[in-house]
Fold this protein.
Amino acid sequence: MTEVQLDTEALRGRIAAELTGARERTAQLTGCVDEADLVVQHSPLMSPLVWDLAHVANQEELWLLREVGGREPMHPEIDPLYDAFEHPRSERPSLPLLPPDEARTYGHEVRGRVLDLLDRSSFSGSKLLGDGFAFGMIAQHEVQHDETMLITLQLRAGAPVLAAPAPGLAPSDAARLPAEVLVPAGPFTMGTSTEPWALDNERPAHTVDVAPFYLDTTPVTCGAYGLFIEDGGYDDPRWWTPAGWEHRLRAGLSAPLYWSFDGGAWARTAFGKTEPVRPDEPVLHVCWYEADAYARWAGRRLPTEAEWEKAARFDPATGVSRRYPWGNFEPNASVANLGQEFLRPAPAGSYPAGAAPCGARQLIGDVWEWTSSDFMPYPGFAAWPYREYSEVFFGPEYKVLRGGSFAVSPVACRGTFRNWDYPIRRQIFSGFRTARSAGAPTA
Ligand SMILES: [Fe+2]
């Protein structure tokens, strides 16, 4: 969707396609394992997959059938089981959850009624319906759970159940790319007041003045990260914040999650397969503390969230912030690695057609990028449509990640999209790039 209003039929078609695409991926992620795998908890950090399966249906029923459609609850007794705030993930396996076949049937019934509702909807009469927002919110919710379920399948032990093609090689100019790009000084528009399906924390648009800085052209690679390890980066408290060092000791961190040192070289295990670490691939599964320590070791720092967004969106030629680094058109396979098409990031320097005006590549897709910023509301923030989406998470406990990973679908990924997590988390598809203030010496 562009900021130009789509007509009702086109909007209806887009919503149906997004909902259907999300459900197809959900079906693949939950159909590739057997029933026992669906109900077991693969990690205390994650829900059993069967919880996600019924939870997406329950949220869809709640927001679309009840709030928008005014329907009575289909199965009110199950609502508390699938309320993410009532039961933390660790508790969910002990709940009387719907078994897989019933969860699928429930999802199917809800979806049938939602598509009927969509057919009749004129997308007017309430703020929730305007621009199809409620439908867009539910499509984004399901693909976010598709990413969560992929994280669960990565944590799962056992033989591989998922296969995907490998992304292509880096383009021929990747080796000649400058290590960093300059983002010039000046104000830019951060956030949005016009993106129809933007969530509350992305709003409203506001002006932020950003001092000039340099940003890595690509995410930090496994090869570069390997040098930090080799140089004793994990053993030198100088590079770590006090909290980071304490966590590094307590958790025994010595390499990214899923890495092992085998036969004199690093290997990584992904979705049940172990293979040599690829030096040109963006590093994945590092926590904020590791990213921050690496940056300090490299004589640099993590970018702030505002710096990241300015690098990704600001077009100095027009003075306007774009929807995406490459412009205003929706992501496609030539500009970004999104949507679980590949189950790994593409080599650093890929997607020249997706470069931002500043020259940085892969800002959208591949890996979520840690920023130095805490998750805070923008000036003028208003919780909508519910406080639990963002507002209850604001504060210094959470760090912001930007850009989206290979695991998130385009519908839930844009230049303004904000993700957040605890600085110790690394089961997520997280990487980073580094920055330095202009005028600060090069390391
Ligand atoms: Fe959810």
